[in-house]
Amino acid sequence: MLKILKYSFFDLVRSRWSYVYFLFYLLLSSVLLFLNNNISNAIITLLNVVIVLVPLIGTIFGVMYYYNSQEFTALLLAQPIRRRSIFMGQFLGVAVSLSLSVLLGLGIPFALYGLFQSNVIFDFLILIVVAIVLSFIFSGLAFNIALSNSNKIKGFGYAILLWLFMAVIYDGAFLIALVYFQDYPLDQFTLFATLFNPIDLSRILILLKLDISALLGYTGAIFKDFFGTLTGSLVSLGVLLAWVLLPSWRMLKVAQRKDF
Amino acid sequence: MVEFKDIYKKFDKNEVLKGINLTIQNGKTTAILGPNGSGKTTLIKILLGMSHPNKGDVLSNASSIRQNWTYRKNIDYLPQIANFPENIKVKEIIRMIKDLRNQKTRDEELITYFGLAPYLNIKLSNLSGGFKQKVNLVLSLMFDSPFIILDEPTSGLDPVSLIKLKELLKKEQSKGKTILITSHIMSFVEEISDHISFILDGKVYFDGSIDQLKSTTGEPNFEYAIANLLKDNHA
């Protein structure tokens, strides 16, 4: 599996898009830091970008990579290699190279600015962890979509829909539900519903660490009560991890049964 | 020895294989023949574990290939359509597959044999069909495995390369290798193979030597004998 991972990784690292992605983060975080001169503000702005962009790029890259490497996959399948290793290797190759782009693109400017001397290093770490986990989650979901759809157009369509749903529609529906049922106690429901969307969950995790949950009013307090504790952190990390593991598991299962 | 046991396979509603029973004997060259869409490639893909049969099993040296991948170490497979990753050089793909399989290779020898040396630094997407097929041949034959599967090995090859391929295969035969081929070039099949398996309507319609085929159909010419098989069926 490591060999496949290596080839997928270097294949992607050599591609123009990885550089574009990396340079985008590099530029954005440099501009934010050096023009704004405030690390905390930069982290909050980056949070808003990362939380939408990482899932989008993860899904698109994942689907694109799968479809583009179909020929190579077919070549590999006839070799004495486990199927599991082929698909796991490719998925990890995509996820790792995307994560690296984010890590370096955000990390270099922050390190240069003097992150290590500041007291928000922990907040920054959470931002990075969230970005990496989201890269893994969404490229995993993308591989699932691509494996189940041999029609590329359909595959891309579903991938975009998935992103749209998680990043935009879910929140919209959620808000409508909150407004509609505002006469009822919804705090528990809100908490529960947040757990089912990795994007929302990541956002909450960072917001709470940044101590701006006060702005969220009563719900914010409830959130702080849950996510602020050790149990809450563990639960949310566990849920994010499940979002990585379940799609990978399904991917391997589908790949095992598929005819090539 | 490879044994196909009662293999059924359908794609959506299209039933391609309807109970194939076939034995590939060690040290012999078997040709799987049949009209377009008769399921030759599907059968080979099932043998390689790339497709899964709806029913039935394939035995390689008396053990099932299901959930098994190590048996592929002894197989060299030439796919029908040479689909390669586009942005990669000939040299790179050879190195990659060598690295992945980690077995002894004879790539240098084959590269010289097929005259690929000047093309090693060219990207695969810029190669002509015939040269792609030569790369395909080098990739699949370089491991010197005891079992060779060739799916339409002649496609795109010029007459000189075709003769080279035949000579190479004859050398492999003399080493006692088991070869499985599919081809639509009947003269090639007649020259190379010991055994013919003719698939029609998802079943093995004829299984025997070329001489048996000629005597069964009463045709002294191999090409006509095959055509005769088809005609008889439709009559």
How would you characterize the overall build of this protein?
The complex is a heterodimer of chains A (260) and B (235). Chain A is an all-alpha fold and 260 residues long. Chain A is built from 11 helices and no strands. Chain A has one domain (2-156, 165-257). The model of chain A has no long low-confidence stretch (mean pLDDT 86). Chain B has one domain (2-234): P-loop containing nucleotide triphosphate hydrolases (Rossmann fold), CATH 3.40.50. Chain B has 8 helices and 10 strands. Chain B has a 6-stranded mixed beta sheet with strand order 6-7-8-3-9-10, with helices on both faces. At the A-B interface, helix 1 and helix 4 of A face helix 2 of B.
Labels describing this entry:
heterodimer; A: mainly alpha; 84% helix; globular; B: 235 residues; alpha/beta; Rossmann fold; 6-stranded mixed β-sheet; 8 helices; 26% strand
Quick structural summary:
The complex is a heterodimer of chains A (260) and B (235). Chain A is mostly helical.
Low-confidence stretches of chain B are: none
Count of the separate structural domains of chain A? 1
Number of helices of chain A: 11
Number of strands of chain A: 0
Query: How many domain modules of chain B?
Result: 1
Beta-strand content bin of chain A: under 5%
Major beta-sheet overview of chain A: none
Uncertain stretches of chain A: none
CATH third-tier fold name of chain B: Rossmann fold
* Spatial shape of chain B: globular
Count of beta strands of chain B:
10
Major sheet details of chain B: 6 strands, mixed
CATH H-level superfamily of chain B: P-loop containing nucleotide triphosphate hydrolases
**Overall average pLDDT of chain A:** 86
Strand order of the largest sheet of chain B: 6-7-8-3-9-10
Question: What is the class of chain B in the CATH system?
Answer: Alpha Beta
The succession of helices and strands of chain A, N to C, reads HHHHHHHHHHH
Question: Percentage of helical residues of chain A?
Answer: over 70%
Oligomer: heterodimer
